[in-house]
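4.2 Preliminary Data

To establish feasibility before requesting continued support, the project team ran the inverse folding procedure on a target of 188 residues. The structure was first converted into the token representation described in Section 3, and no sequence information of any kind was made available to the design step. The complete token record follows.
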């Protein structure tokens, strides 16, 4: 079952990461000399700069469980603990006391890149993510979910409609993982 709060939080964080962006560069070898670059043991060895690069965030999978997500979340949680913070950003030992801005800024800079990315199918960085959401909505409707639509962000779906129909919500929550897997299998 997909937890809508966790899904929204994951999508929001993914959007922040995508919008924040990181600069990438690549070297293309000596193309002007007409010599293609060939991999050798020496060129395949990581450079000192590459080994000190920031770790990348793990990615959730559509078939992942809540336990799988908790495992993916561990590096982020450990980083936050290193800064004396809980996963939610409050000081350890307090659910309400907020740390100084300098502490949260440092924790955000270091830890945010470790927060798990959403499954590629729902990642705002994926140019086909909106198509995926539309196809999941079609699947849910075909399975009898009456009130379901693509959400405003275009990457998720909303259940229940303006009537807050509990049957559509419960049936949609139950069938969403199945429809996600079906749609993903058709895309491959």
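Position-by-position output of the design step:
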């Amino acid at each position: 079952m997909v937890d809508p709060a966790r899904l929204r939080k994951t999508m929001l964080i993914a959007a922040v990461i995508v919008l924040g962006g990181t600069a990438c560069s690549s070297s293309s070898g000596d193309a002007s000399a007409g010599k293609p670059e060939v991999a050798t043991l020496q060129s395949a060895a990581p450079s000192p700069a590459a080994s000190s690069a920031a770790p990348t965030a793990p990615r959730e999978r559509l078939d992942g469980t809540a336990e799988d997500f908790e495992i993916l979340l561990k590096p982020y949680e450990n980083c936050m603990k290193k800064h004396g913070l809980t996963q939610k950003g409050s000081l350890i030992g307090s659910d309400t006391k907020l740390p100084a801005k300098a502490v949260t800024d440092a924790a955000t800079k270091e830890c945010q890149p470790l927060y798990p990315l959403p499954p590629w199918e729902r990642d705002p960085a994926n140019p086909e993510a909106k198509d995926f959401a539309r196809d999941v909505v079609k699947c849910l409707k075909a399975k009898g979910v009456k009130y379901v639509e693509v959400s405003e962000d275009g990457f998720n779906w909303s259940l229940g409609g303006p009537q807050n129909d509990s049957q559509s919500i419960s049936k949609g929550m139950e069938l969403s993982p199945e429809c996600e897997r079906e749609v993903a299998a058709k895309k491959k």
